[in-house]
Amino acid sequence: MDRRKTLKTLLGGAVGTAFIGTTTGCDRNGDPVPASAVEAETEGYGLRTAYEAEREENLRSERFFSDDELQTLAVLGNIIIPGVEESGFSEFCEFMAKDQPAVHATRLRGGLAWLNADSSRRYDGKSFTELDDEQRIAIVDEIAYPDPEATTQPPGVQFFNHARYMALTAYYTSRQGIDDLGYVGNQANVWDGPPQEVLDKHGLAYDPKWLPLYVDQEKRTEQIQWDDQGNII
Amino acid sequence: MQIKKNDKEYDAIIVGSGAGGGMTARRLAENGLNIAIIEAGPYFDPQDNEMRTQLRWPYESPRRGASTTRPFGDFNAAFGGWDIPGEPYTTTPGTRFEWFRSRMLGGRTNHWGRISLRFGPDDFKHYDKDGLGANWPITYDEIKPWYEKVDKLIGVFGTNEGLHNDPDGFFLPPPKPRLHEMLISKHAKNVGVPFIPSRLSIVTKKVNDERGLCFYCAQCSRSCMVKADFSSSSALVIPAMNSVGQVDLYTNSMAREVITDSTGRATGVSYVSKEDRREYTIKGKVVVLAAGSCETARLLLNSHAPGQENGLGNGSGVVGRYLHDSTGLNVSGFVPSLMDRKRYNEDGVGGLHVYAPWWGDNKKLDFPRGYHIEVWGGMGMPSYGFGGGILEMQRAVGERVGGYGRKMLDEMNRYYGAYVGMAMRGESVAMYDNYCEIDPSGKVDEWGIPTLRFNYNWTDYEYKQAQHAQKTLRSIMDDMGAELVSAEPGKDREYGLLAPGEIIHEVGTARMGDDPKTSVTDRWGKLHESPNVFISDAATFASQADKNPTWTILALAWRQGDHIVEELKKMNI
Ligand SMILES: Cc1cc2nc3c(=O)[nH]c(=O)nc-3n(C[C@H](O)[C@H](O)[C@H](O)COP(=O)(O)OP(=O)(O)OC[C@H]3O[C@@H](n4cnc5c(N)ncnc54)[C@H](O)[C@@H]3O)c2cc1C
Ligand code: SF4
Questions:
Q1: Are B150 and B550 in contact (CB under 8 A)?
Q2: Residue B319: inside a domain, yes or no?
Q3: Which of A48, A192, B127, B282 is a good FRET partner for B72, with 20 to 30 A between their CA atoms?
Q4: Domain count for chain B
Q5: How much is the pTM?
Q6: Residue nearest to atom 5 of ligand 2 (CA)
Q7: Do B206 and A220 touch (CB under 8 A)?
Q8: Ligand 1 centre distance from Cα of residue B108 (Å)
Q9: C-alpha torsion angle, residues B483, B488, B489, B491 (rounded to 10)
Q10: Which atom number of ligand 1 is nearest to the Cα of residue B449?
């Protein structure tokens, strides 16, 4: 483990030594404490354990898809969701193929190969990226609508389902998608129930028994006090 | 392997820093004792910005929050999961058990659900009611004062409902319900299931100077930087370290066994340091085991004293036996009337705002124990897998299934917030034949410590309860006009019951009782066969209730901590 990381770890408070105490003078029998694989450390999105950090470093040093494959993913992704490359779609596919290979690697790689084979068969040996827009859409339209009654779907449909799944995740977990969706949380808030118009629309109302008991957000900073029965006073 | 000795003798050594260990540590330290905490995982403090996963966005994670290394998602504050590299366990052929462990200061309380329910009077005497399992040696009235102390120190919101077996408490005011929670409550009432405000240990109103106020981000599972949720790390262990007592915290230290003298009195604990993989011992006048029910059983079974060759305190042979978890199953579906929702911040607290405590009367039913119902849904933050159900939703509303482009996104936006679910969490019956034991094949983990093997089967009691729950949950969903995702599972799928262990309420592996022949500890959680070894986690539970266990762990640990202080003062230990 390099020194920079160990330092960062120490600064992060995730102390690698086995001893943290309010007493001083106990240095674990004077033994030097080796840095080790059990240290927790930070990696930019909140604490990662050393196992996770090391694993991620390994994944990042590997490359799964070829340039061609990545380009094909990008072209297809932008058909599924226009602009999804800005949400990091192909990069996300690359990472997930290594992060969860059993789920994604062959499904995506095999699907891309299927797509190119299909393009080639139909359009004179061309790969999917070599097609024009109309030709691409012609292929996509044949695989984008699974038959809801069928028990198994043909390979192209299965691939498209998976690509759609990845595109939806990439998009809606990105800034653009979150804004498109209109999710407005993940920030400090004072929850005081759904807006009245929403309750009205759904024909719902608070139970009068509990209405006076819900937290009065105006008074939440005042110290709680109870009588002997547990009633708030 | 050389065993290193440290000559200092602590008043007490506590193994594990979760709910049980944290509370014991705080009580002993506040009483001025000199204690050591041995914790298998690293230091963790949710207030430390470098460790913070709270308020992060899904795109900050390369896997967009996927659960590759953390079962509850990439931002979840659990260092561990069902499988920990280098720390295996096995099950006997044909049986199932899933063992969730979290190795860090505060254990599983950094990311637990915060559902904080007292057990009721019947829960301590269930044998008297139905002749199954065993009574606890204590009554609700004996533990009630300790529940009150826990309520007042830690803070739990809820309402006093005057329900016989779901006792009132000293509650903070609850948050108003979310839209889907109001909808579910309404339709549940239609089918005869009463929902009430939930009871979660989240600070909605100032409880004391130690803790912050909830700002409604719905992310308690990431552990709260303002300490508005209860985590043992921030609410118990760190305050203990700042109290009058002396607290030495040994992190990354995996306890191996309790060391005893020839009479069975504990003299210390040995542990393997994860830094140098060497074994150390520390000495103490009292040893408190709180490593989590199964790990505590493992420690006892791996410890030996003269005459106690089958494991420390195991003269009864029931260490590891009567292991039981809550039952659980889930039903979810798409509610068309919740489509096209107006957007607003609906995060709320990190958990449900309403729930249904057990409302039934088992005397009139064909199964002995009850269950409660939890709910989920709403306009939550997207994470990995968002949109995964689009085909089912299109199908539910009669759209053409599949597609792409703007049309698909518009559809997805309309469906957002219309997907809801309900979970049944019930009481199972503690059985002698459900147990964990030291793996007879002689396996060890990477620290050289013999591992556990589990043997657990559900019985007809649980199957019948599950069938009842399937019917109930589905009838609420039907009343709401929900399109259910899956058909009702039959016997072949165990009526949808999750595997034992999956609800993560495993208890009972060193149950308390007055009779040393059938129980492991006395009413204080002290081993019958050792004068100074205590257990402060849920291993001592004679029976689980249709409630979650942690509030009871905390109350029992507080009571036990004060008892230990008294006994040390009186020189009884
Ligand atoms: C996702 C999730 C949701 C939950 N929701 C709820 C809920 O809503 N309500 C509820 O009541 N309960 C809930 N629980 C259960 C709750 O977390 C546990 O009941 C509680 O944490 C148990 O406390 P404990 O002290 O027994 O063990 P833990 O919290 O597991 O702590 C044990 C500690 O001991 C350490 N340890 C283990 N082995 C060793 C060893 N050999 N040497 C040294 N240290 C060791 C561990 O690292 C850990 O820190 C939930 C759990 C999970 C995971
Ligand atoms: S919901 Fe409240 S208590 Fe939970 S993490 Fe967010 S602010 Fe903290």
A1: no
A2: no
A3: A192
A4: 2
A5: 0.94
A6: B220
A7: yes
A8: 4
A9: 180
A10: 41
